Amino acid sequence: MTLHPKDRAIVEATQAGLPLVPTPFEVVANTLGMSEKELLDRLAHLKKQGVIRRIGAAPNHYRLGMTSNGMTVWDVDDSVVDELGERVGALPFVTHSYRRPRALPDWPYNLFAMVHGATRKEVLEKQKEISTLLGDACRVGDILFSTRILKKTGMRLRRKEN
Amino acid sequence: MTADLSDIDRKLINSLQDDLPLTSHPFATVAEELGLSEEDVIDRTRRLRDDGLLTRFGPFFDAEALGGAFCLCAIAVPADQFEEVLTKVNAYSEVAHNYERNHRLNMWFVLATESKAEIDKTAAAIEQDTGLQVLLFPKEREFFIGFRVNA
Predict the structure, then answer these.
(1) A88-115: string of b/e by CB count within 10 Å (b at 16+)?
(2) Is there a single domain that holds both residue B76 and residue B132?
(3) N or C: less crowded end of chain B, CB within 10 Å?
(4) ipTM reported for the complex, 2 dp
(5) pLDDT of B60-119, one tens digit each?
(6) Under an 8 A CB cutoff, do B98 and A144 touch?
(7) B3 at the A interface (CB within 8 A)?
(8) Closest Cα of chain B to A17: distance in Å?
(9) Which CATH architecture has domain A68-145?
(10) Full domain range(s) for residue B73
(11) Are residues B44 and B89 in the same domain?
């Protein structure tokens, strides 16, 4: 998808966050040389297109006590994986859920769901809930805990070279 | 969950995870729901962000919709080579996140590039550099997420 240059400018101006002032959209609009109305209309359109998922806060899991996370992985029958994936994604403790290709013979899993919790025990209980939800459609599952963050960089839109 | 957080701050964190209305005074709407003043909501939000309880406040973009390609990758790194391989893998600017995990496939990272072709090229270069197979797990489908942290 190619973004309109004005939309690209909006992304660049807001990806670090919105100003915390009474009229944040007006402030951003002023820096972009557009009216507040145009900015709000463009944001509404970007939401409709799915470029923006929501506008809100990203809580710090760790600071809020969610210090354990596990990548649960499942080998789910291809004929029902999408339907079940939707239900797994909707669980309140799942932060990401994707269908991905298997890498046989080592990796039979096609459904990934990231689970967060206060403790490893809590994460394991949640893994069990997913297992129950998947039922017989799931042949085998596993959970991978992260033992070390090796690199973490923000993913930012790179500025287009002119 | 965090002892030093007031009830108001907890409610505010929960509320701020909802979609902010696209209006001139969006914080006034949040304030009304919580029975606070607009100024109080803004001050508290700023403090929560400055204290690191919120990592950011603003639009969440779909990285792929913005253009660019992403792919989850994994390598089974022999324990005695781990640090050496890590140095080589992290040297690639295309490697955005990298986690050690407790599995035979013990190194999991995300490649972020401008195009799908560059994903394959970078993965091949990492294989060449490390002598280890890079498994690619591209996203085939993303499921809707209902997650929110209950502060």
Answers:
(1) bbebebbbbbbbbeebeeebebbbbbbb
(2) yes
(3) N
(4) 0.79
(5) 988 787 878 999 999 999 999 999 999 999 999 999 999 999 999 999 999 999 889 999
(6) no
(7) no
(8) 4
(9) 2-Layer Sandwich (3.30)
(10) 69-137
(11) no
